[in-house]
Structures are given as C-alpha cells and as structure tokens.
Amino acid sequence: MDLLTLLLILDSTIRLATPLLLACLAGLYSERAGIFDIGLEGKMLAAAFFSGAVAYTTGSAWLGLLAGIGASLVLSAVHGIASITFRGNQLISGVAINFLAAGLTVVIAQSWFKQGGRTPQLVGDARFEPITLPFADAVKDIPVFGVVYNELISGHTSIVYIALLLVPLTWILLYRTRFGLRLRAVGENPASVDTAGISVVRLRYIAVLICGVLCGLAGAYLATALQAGFVKDMSAGRGFIALAALIFAKWRPWQALFACLLFGFLQAMALRPDVLEQYLGFKVNAQLLDALPYILTVVILAGFVGKAIPPKAGGEPYVKER
Amino acid sequence: MTTAAPAIELVGISKAFGSVQANKDISIRVMPGTIHGIIGENGAGKSTLMSILYGFYKADAGEVFIGGKKTAIPDSQAAIDAGIGMVFQHFKLVDNFTVLENVVLGAEEGFMLGTSISKARRVLKSLSEDYGLNVEPDAKIEDIGVGMQQRVEILKALYRQADILILDEPTGTLTPAEADQLFRILDRLKNEGKTIILITHKLREIMDVTDTVSVMRAGEMTATVKTAEVTPAELAELMVGRKVRLTVAKKDISVGEKILEVKDLSVKDINGVERLKGASFDVRAGEILGIAGVAGNGQSELLEALGGYQKATGSVTYKGAAMDLSGLVSNGQDRRSNGIAHVPEDRQSEGLIMEFMAWENAVFGYHLDPEFRKGWLTDNAAMKTDAAGKMERFDVRPPDPLLKAKSFSGGNQQKIVLAREFERSPDLLLIGQPTRGVDIGAIEFIHQSIVELRDQGKAILLVSVELDEILALSDRIAVMFDGRIMGERRPSETDESELGLMMAGMTKDVA
Amino acid sequence: MNELPRWAEIILVPLISLLLAAVLSALVILAIGENPISALQLMVQGALGSTYGWGYTLYYATNFIFTGLAVAIAFHARLFNIGGEGQATLGGLGVALVCVYIPWPHWSLALIGAMVGAAVLGAAWAAIPAFLQARRGSHIVITTIMFNFIAAALLNYLLIGLLKPKGSMEPATAKFAESTHLPSFQDMFSTADNVLFRGAPANVTFFVATLACILVWLLIWHTRLGYEIRSFGHSDSAAKYAGISPTKIIMITMMISGALAGLMAINNVMGEAERLILGSVEGAGFIGIAVALMGRSHPFGIFIAAILFGFLYQGGAELALWTSIPRELIVVIQALVILFTGALDNMVRMPLQKLFSLFKRTPVSEV
C-alpha cells in the first residue's frame, strides 16, 4: 500500500474515531461511577443539533460548542434525576433520552430552519477549521516523518486534539487524584464511600455531568467539524459503538483510545472498499465492517477473550441497607 | 481511671423502623481504655444502636456524649471527626482497590493522590508495627483473606485517628486462629488507650476479651455488668431472657425407623470457604431433631443442601436411598415428590414471593402437581379453593387467598408456608427458624402444628436459634458450632446453660 | 411499604404519567408555534375519523402489540429485552424466506408458514443473548442492543446480495407471490357498494395479534411456565428454593419474547409491503418498550397502549401532512411516555403513596 493511501485512511480513522472517543470517555466517567448510560447516542445527537443551530445563527463554532454542551447537560441532568434522585431504572432512562433527542432535534430543526429537519450548511467560522500544527509546512518534505506529521498529525480541528488530550487527562484524573479514587470507589461499592463520610449522590451527579460535557463535545464535533451542519439522526449509532468500545476497553482510558481507533479504522475502511479489495485480494463486505464492532463486543462480553467485568455497583441505585 | 469522663455515653437512645422499635431508651457508658461488649440475639438492636453512633441512622430520641461532651452525629463524617471508627459486619471495602487505596479513600490530603498514598504507606507501616496489624499495603482486597480485610478496616479507622473503635460481629467470618489474632490486636489497642466496643452474640468472645458487657434483648438494654463478675451461664440467661417457659404437649410415641441419615455433609460457599464441615446425624420417624446454634454456624447451608438447592459433598440417605447432592434445580422437585417438605429459614426471600397472592404462594414449589392442572393450563380455581382451605385450617388471618403475601403479618405469612408444606403430609420435614419474626399468638399454634406432625410419626429436622424453642420441641438436640455438630443431648438431660456453652464452642463432647 | 390500591396502580399511575407526557408534548407544540388543541383535533380526525384512518391506526397498533408483548413477557422474568428491533428484523427475514422460496397454495397456509418462519428466526436471534446472559453473565441489555445492529448489517448484506432478485437495483426481495397476500381490512369488511378501509394496510394480522394477547395472558397467568417466569422475575432466590431453573426460564422467556417480536413481520412484511425491504421495522421494536411500560406488562394494557400508539403514529403522519409539525413529534411523545412510566416512575408514585396513606387506615391483617 502506498504511504499516501495509508495516510489518507489513517487520517480518516482519526477523524471518525474522535466522536467515538469523546462519547466513550463520557460513558467511562458515568459508568465508572456506577451509572449505566445507554443514552450517549441521544446526548450526542442533541449536542450535534444545538451546536449546529447556534453555530449557524451566531456564526461562531465555539458558541455552537457551548450550546451543544448545554443541551447534552440538560439530558444528563434528566438521567441523573431519574437514576440518582428517583432511583429509577437507568437503562429505561437511557432509552427515553435517546428517543427524546431523536424526536426533539428534528421537531425543533424543522421549526427553526424548515429544511426537513436539518440545519443550513455551516460556512466559515461557524465550523471548526483544521489547525496546522507548527512546522507542518516546514517538515513536509522530510520523508516519512515529515509526511506523517504534515498529513496525519497536523491539520485536524481543535476538538480532535482536545479528545486526544482527554485520554491522558482522564487517566490521571482517574488513577492519580482524589476525585478519581472516589469516582472508582462509588462505582464499585458505594457503601465504602458513604461510610467514609462522602456523599454518594453528589459524586454520581458530578460523574453524570462530566459525561454530559463530553457527549456535548462529541456531538458538536459531528455537526461543526466532521460535517458542516446538522442532519437528522446524524449520530448514526455512534453512541452505541462508543458503548461497545467502552466495554471492549474494559472501562479504561488508554484502552478506550485504542478501541475507538480500531472502530474508527473499521469505519474508515468501510468507506474505501476499493483499497481493501486491492490489498487483500478479495472483497471485504462493507456490512461485515459495520457489524464488526458489535460482534467484537459481544465476543468480549461473552468472556471468550478476557472477561469484561463492569463496575460492580453499575446500574443499581444506592440505598442505605437496613 | 474511673474518675475520667466516659469515652462514650449514650443517653436515652430510641429508634423505630416503621412499627418496629429497634432501640428503646438505651443508655450506656463506656470508659476510655476499655473493651466493652454488647451481646444479644439477632435482631436485639445491637447493630442499629451502633449505626446510630456512627451517623448511619438518625436516632428518634436520645443524646450522645463523646469524652463527656455532647456531640451531634448527623452523618458518618461527623462520627469520623469525633474520633469514632467502625468496622462493619459486611466490610465496606472496594474489592479491586489496593489496601492503601482503601485506607486513603475519603481521608485524602490534597487533590493529587501521590502524597496521600505515600503518607498512608508510612503511617500504615508504623501502625502495623505498633499493633501487630500485619497487612500487605499493595495487595488488592479481592486477593487477600477475610482476616486481612478486617485488619484493613481497622487500619482505616486508625488512619483516621479514631480513639473509639466499634466492631460489629467481627468474628462472624473468621477462623478461630484469625479471631485469636484479632483479639490480640484489640488488646494492644486497648493498652494504647483506645476504647473498643465489641458487638457479638458469642459468649466466649465476651468472656475472653471484654472488661464490661451490656446485654440487649428485643431493643432494650437489660443489663450492664463487669465481665469478671458474671458467668457465661448467667449471661446466656440474660441474653435469652426468662421468657414464659414454652411447653408443648407431646404424645409418647415410639420412635420408628431412620428416615434421614446424614454422613460427613460438607458445603463450600461461592468463595470456597467451608461453611458446613462434615456434619453427621440421623433423624427417625416420629421424632424431632432440634439443631441448636448461633446463626451463621452452618445451619443455613445444612438446610439448603438437604432442601436440594445447594451443592454438597458427603452422603445423605433418605428412606434407604442415596440423595442427589448436586444442587441442580431438579433436586428440589425430586425432594418434594418424595415427601420431603421444607420450611426455609427466610420466608421473605425464599419461602414466599411477596408480590404473589396468598393462593399463588400456597402452591409454590408444588405448582407442577397434576391436581393443579387442567390440560395445558393451571387450574387457578382449584388452587384458590385449595388455598382457602389451607388458610382456614391454619388460621391465617385474614383468610383471603387474594391478598398479596406482603400484606400479611409475619406470623400469618409463616402460617401460609406451614400450611403449604404440612398439608402434603410429608415423611420428612425440614424446618428453619419456624417462629422468627412471628407474633406471640402465632408461636403457640406453629409449635402445636409441628408437634402434631411428629405425633403422626413423621421425621422432623428443626433448626432454630431460639434455645427455648429447641428445648420445648425437640426429642433430641444437636448443637452446631462452626459448621460442626458439637454433640447431642436429650432435652431432659440438659439445660440452657450447657447448650449455651456448646453453642459458643466451649465444650466438645467426644461422641 | 405503603402500597397503592390496585386501581390506582393500574389506572391512575399510567394515566398521570401519560398526562405529564401529554402536557410536555403540548408545550413542545406551543413552542414551535402551533396550537396543541387543533393539533389534537387533527390527529383524532386523521387517525380515528374514518375507516381509512382506523385502517392505519390498527395497522400500526398490530406491530406494537407484538413488540409490546415481547418486551412485557421479558419484563415478567425481570429481563430487559431491548432487542425487539433486531428480532423483528430477523422475523422479517423468516417471513421473506418462507414466502419467496415456498410456493403456497393459499394465503392461510402461507400465513401459518410465515408465522413459523418469523417466530423461529426471531426466537433464534433472542436465544444467543439469552444464552450469554444465563451462562456467561453477559448483560442482556448490551448484547441485545449489539444484536440489533448486527441484525441490521446482516439484513443489509442479504438484501444487496443473496436475496435481491437478478437485475434489480433496489435492496429488497422480490415481491411475494399473489397467493401469499393476506386479506386486508378492505378485502374483509367492504361490501359491493360500500368500500371500507380503502387502501389502508390493516390486515388479518390484527386478529393474530389480538389472539397473541390472549395467549400471552393465558401463558403468564394460567400456565405453569408463566407461574415460573413470574416467580423467577420476582425473586430468583425463592425460585431456586422452589426448584425452578434460572437458565431454563431465561432461555425460554427470551425465545418467546424474540418469537413475538419476530411475528410482527407478518404484519409489516407479509401484510403490508409484501416483500422484504431495508429498515422495515421502523423502530417498532423500541416502541414496544413504551407500550409495555404503559400497559404495565399486562396483555390487555398492551392492547390499549398499542392502539394509543397506533393512533399517535397515524395522527402524527396526518399532522406532518397538514401542518409544519414533523412526524418526529411522535418520537418525542414516545420518549416522554417511556421516561415518565419507566424511569421516573417513582416521581409519580411517591407523592401518590403519600397521598393515599393519608386517607388510609393501618393496613389489614395486624394479628
């Protein structure tokens, strides 16, 4: 395979992996705290719409991003109220949030823009533009390194770099700070946190809200960076692939990065069936590539390749025992 | 020493859960540098009292004085601040954390963990040396034994500079050797000036380690005495209380053939810990074999294994044929169809389905019977009629088969279970805690029913933590301790204090 | 602790939840500058004002009855089958295989054959997650979600490959033979001079769905299996005591659930489209969750809730046609119903419990 084709595919891998990574990290915070979240998809979708809409209206991608995060946070709060305050079923709440987002985004989009449930095309500052990293131009003629730096590493939007930075940041937060220690503890055994004199409810709300912020980033990326505007159902199952990646990564940040890159790569390959056929010598079915993340996740869940053990207290509302 | 202010003083503590008065006007004083025991039967209110002291529950009334100062304890943080540490019966540890992480959790210094962890490592080292608390700081909780886990809990409290340490049933899951080690640690803590409250229902522990002891019964504090001035027998009496001596009229019938023969029956729990350790006994037709013992000494596992839903090893012969001990679900059905009835210890989580109506519960376990079938369908009408009859005969109040199980009182719930199991006229009845949480009125009726079944020549295995119940009903009594049968006695040849000592594992007769 | 009276449990709680969902939906309609009252009138007129409207309402309701029953039976065993969508997709495949490859002499025989095909494939698709749950402890919610996507990919693969007739560009099977066409309501109820249900897709499957309600009701409350399913759902420890096998219950319940979801395909694939196309389930698998929650997992409640959702779907289509309110408003209402009847159940229930305990004496049977 020539370097340029490879770089093109890897470049598109990074772009496609970014929303997965953000959503996956979002889920990581929530689920590590013991709150299952199958509503990543919905939060992402809501964020995508509101960021697209506000970016279009104000002409500022950054304001759009804020709006997207705000929308996602509202849905996070709903999830928190249902599953923490009222001790409802976390899974059902997640399902409801997905539908709420799927419906509301189109209804509002239609009312605001009357373009069949989409926002108008975003142009100029309403979109996140690729950033050229320092020296990218200067080194582009150096063989291999220069090309890789220029083509692959440089030239992404700021959200891509934010997402990548969030991986080590999450790792540090989770394993090297007081907050991370408590977060992990509350997802494993909330009673340990409670008897240590720390509020379980507060900790879980914080986790759910962080999840909201990250889903907001993921959604905003879809509408204002990956594409130029919101279209109906544009999250297209990414929230669930992120969930799959989270399980695949066994709820750990670095592994989440690799899982998302893998799933992003599969998506990138599905867009270039010609390349695969050319190099593998046989036709790889695009549907197989689509389904592969899910199949891999089921295999992992089934415990055939290492067991994916979710946080022990996940899905269970905390009630003081009598 | 005696002139100092008490380390803890509770005055007039009361706490009710719904209609259940868990603590009634309780007052105690514990002097600093002593080990104070609180002893009582299950449900006497010991744990509730300590949970109030640790800020886990809010008392309805009463005051707490720490070191002579009135202290409000609205939550656990306040208790920790007041220098109270608690080791719960079920540890509050995070299994996939290291020892250090568990110790630091909630007592971190600063946002980054690094300094907290290294400080904890230092402190832990010196604490370990001071008190002989031998732990591996970097081991994960899930990889270490129960004894070490408990020491981690103690370290957690000491790391928070607790002066008062409460331990709730600390030896429940420990081996005797581990328990001894724990007591040595407690002794050293005491000598360092710490105050320790030890909650237990084991007489031997009280006698061995405490300086003073309070006895709780049915939510009330019945006595506080110096341990040195009391005998185990007296304590046993205080604990159980001189209830109205139960007498049940029993016919004099001759004992028949061996119905159940148990040899070397052993059960391991899911963690591989042996809970039942080679129990052997037999039960004959027309007799009640009572198994006495403090809860958690293997009786539950015994019943579950015989009831067919717990895997066991050893051999059990029922009416001459070997019993399947695989614990596969088909066992339960086989047992029932062969005339073995089982009234489980816990009617709320096993014997009944609380959301089911009485008539549905009245066939639970026997729902496959042909008499309740009409072609492919169940004969709900027949079930309801059947249930109504059973409820009538067993005096279930109200006798309404359409009420959900959860809306009956404890005694009436139990009568539904008894009616279901007794009316099959089983050859062998396994019955656990027949009167736990049952109102006084129903106790007599339940006892009568059990004895009637025995008078019909049936074999009965009775497990109870109520000594007087065992004494009143049994033809023979076997005492269980630590998964083993300590010995057998005839009720006429023994009394509560001897049985109490055996239950505490103090004597072991050589059979 | 303090339980609600039966009527409040069955009628009041769902009604309040529905009311909350309706009020919020009305606010949404107001917010986008339309009139909720006239929107409701339009929906009633469009969905219930003619046999044509009813024909659509009942067509949608038929789908939702099947998927609602599927979710409900799993709920009875305390299993959350979120995979109705995938199971219905596979059910469609079963119908298509039976209808395309077997020459049927009469629609009634074809119906039976298609039902078998749909049920078997639907059940098989549910059986894998069920097995993984029962034996490997894999969370059934996650696996059934994954299986929805895998089903979609599988169908996509088959429809652009093996199942597509030669020369066709469309990802769909060939049209089913005339002899497999199910009688529509128009065929059944029209007279020579009075055509009813003209052009509406409701068909004989509606009666199959109604029958399914009755059968599921019998299964749950009048068979030994149903008794065991409910026992396991309420308390697995008690079920163990009674000699009920968890593995057996999980497997059988999920397979029945999957079969019911699969059976939906005789309505939409065989009854309406008369060929298998991509995405034919159209989210009905998920609506089943809302229907089951609202119907309190009781087949009769599900029947009512399914018709309500059928009304919403048809009414929503009419709204989209005549106003600027898009069809997706229905998705919003559906989400709110799930939210209030499912996740925020305690929010509705807790104040009610307080209210009722004020008026109630101490509970019966304090002996």
Description:
The complex is a heterotrimer of chains A (322), B (511) and C (367). With 322 residues, chain A is an all-alpha fold. Chain A has a single domain (3-128, 139-301), classed as ABC transporter involved in vitamin B12 uptake, BtuC (Orthogonal Bundle), CATH 1.10.3470. Chain A has helices spanning 3-32, 40-58, 61-85, 90-113, 136-139, 145-153, 158-176, 178-188, 190-195, 200-226, 238-248, 253-271, 273-280, 286-301. In chain A, helix 1 (3-32) runs antiparallel to helix 10, helix 3 runs antiparallel to helix 10 (200-226) and helix 12 packs antiparallel against helix 14 (286-301). The mean pLDDT of chain A is 91. By secondary structure, chain B is α/β, with parallel strands linked by helices. Chain B is built from 17 helices and 22 strands. In chain B, strands 6-7-8-3-9-10 form a six-stranded mixed sheet, with helices on both faces. Chain B has a six-stranded mixed sheet with strand order 16-19-20-13-21-22, sandwiched between helices. In chain B, strands 2-1-4-5 form a four-stranded antiparallel sheet, with helices on one face. In chain B, a hairpin with a 2-residue loop joins strand 17 (373-374) and strand 18 (377-378). In chain B, helix 8 (232-240) packs across helix 17, helix 13 (380-393) packs across helix 14 (410-422) and helix 14 (410-422) runs parallel beside helix 15 (440-455). Chain B is elongated. The model of chain B has no long low-confidence stretch (mean pLDDT 87). In chain C, 56% of the residues are buried. The longest helix of chain C has 30 residues, at 107-136. Chain C has helices at residues 6-31, 36-48, 51-76, 84-101, 107-136, 140-160, 185-189, 205-222, 224-234, 236-241, 246-263, 265-273, 284-294, 299-322, 329-343, 345-359. In chain C, helix 2 (36-48) crosses helix 3 (51-76), helix 3 runs parallel beside helix 8 and helix 4 packs antiparallel against helix 5 (107-136). Chain C is mainly alpha-helical and 367 residues long. Chain C is globular, with a radius of gyration of 22 Å. The interface between A and B is medium-sized, with 23 and 31 residues.
Write a brief structural summary.
The complex is a heterotrimer of chains A (322), B (511) and C (367). Chain B is of the alpha/beta class and 511 residues long.
